[in-house]
Amino acid sequence: MEPDAAEIAPEVEVRRSRRRTRTVTAFRERGRVVVAIPARFSRAEEAAWVERMVARLERTERRRRPSDDELVTRAARLSSTYLGGAVRPTSVAWVGNQGRRWGSCSPSNGSIRISDRLRGMPTWVLDYVLLHELAHLVDAGHGPAFWALLEGYPHTERARGFLSGVSFAQQDGSAGGDGFADADGFGDDDDGFGDDGDADDVLAGPRA
Ligand SMILES: [Zn+2]
């Protein structure tokens, strides 16, 4: 099996909150998992809840994130729907070392890599990145002929805007880039898509 990001222990930041009295929540922020807990928790409670919430977050993300096999199936469907089925990648896989890029491909061997920073993003964004890389197996550039390949996909402009927004929101001093530096026009740093605050709070009462 390929190493998978979910199998690598994430960097965790614990935030103690006086306003938080009975709930615990976990979300991703700038590549870290943030676990917010009530200020009154003991160190033992903190440790137990961090373990529980990180496991819970990863379960949720696995449900939302297709496996490599599903990526292959998805890419094949996108190819047949929007590129006439002409493009058949030899492999499609999640990878964790894409730097600023959302995706990349090797036209020489037909492989496609998708940044695991896309996990948890809407499927129409993931599909856009897949289709973008599929199109690069036909045309390596970003000229009119390349964009013409993506014309059939109805969410191209929306997905590009979405990813630009993510890049913009995630820029901080450490990122250093302008989000347009790399060849793909795909942005900087990180997914930043955690579960959203209160909606995912877990009541700490019974265990506290
Ligand atoms: Zn590109």
What does this structure look like?
- Pfam families: YgjP-like (PF01863).
- InterPro entries: UTP_pyrophosphatase-like, YgjP-like_metallopeptidase.
- Residues 173-208 are annotated as: Disordered.
- There is one protein chain.
- By secondary structure, the chain is of the alpha/beta class.
- The chain has two domains: 12-64, no CATH class; 68-172, 2-Layer Sandwich (Zincin-like).
- The protein has five helices and seven strands; from the N terminus they run E-E-E-H-H-E-E-E-H-H-H-E.
- The strands form two sheets. It has a four-stranded mixed β-sheet, with helices on one face.
- Strand 2 and strand 3 form a beta hairpin.
- Helix 2 packs across helix 3 and helix 3 packs across helix 5.
- It is elongated, with a radius of gyration of 19 Å.
- It starts with 11 loop residues before the first strand and ends in a 5-residue tail after the last strand.
- Residues 1-7 and 173-201 have low confidence and may be disordered.
- The chain binds zinc ion.
Q: What is the topology?
A:
Layout: E1 12-17, E2 23-29, E3 32-38, H1 43-64, H2 68-82, E4 91-95, E5 103-106, E6 111-115, H3 123-136, H4 144-149, H5 156-170, E7 202-203
The protein binds zinc ion.
The site of zinc ion (ZN) has 4 residues, from helix 3.
